[in-house]
Design brief:
single chain; six-stranded antiparallel beta sheet; 3 helices; 23% strand
Length: 151
Amino acid sequence: MIPVEPRLLTAAQQFLHLQRNPLCPGDGTLHAGGLAWRFALRPTPLSREYGVRIDYHQGQVPDVFVEDPDLTLLAGDRTLPHVYSQKPTRLCLYLPRAFEWRDWMRLDETIVPWIAIWLFYFEEWLTSNAWKGGGEHPDHPRSRRRRPGRR
């Protein structure tokens, strides 16, 4: 028997899940095949609050940006670890080539908690100067689009 992969969640379904999840209260826009969601996140009760944006287009990997505060200013003269871009600060949250995130997964149950974990390790990195969040930094995920019929 061939395993059946769950069905892709539409951008509208993802948007509805984000709206209803108390972990990421915010506001966003929904457009044909995609969404943008902005919310405030505090990784621990003692942490500062971060303004985060998730951009998602159906069938693609989500892009996550920290919009406030400016993480490069917090880092001083250091280069931010584990990001795809410094400015705007686009986070690297998982291994795309290992398919740790798939388009049938809910953003609010995967990406949002992964953002909180990344920010936790970022705050720790600010004091220790050692990235303890693990992982590796692969090539940009947009360069590795899955072709239909291939895994």
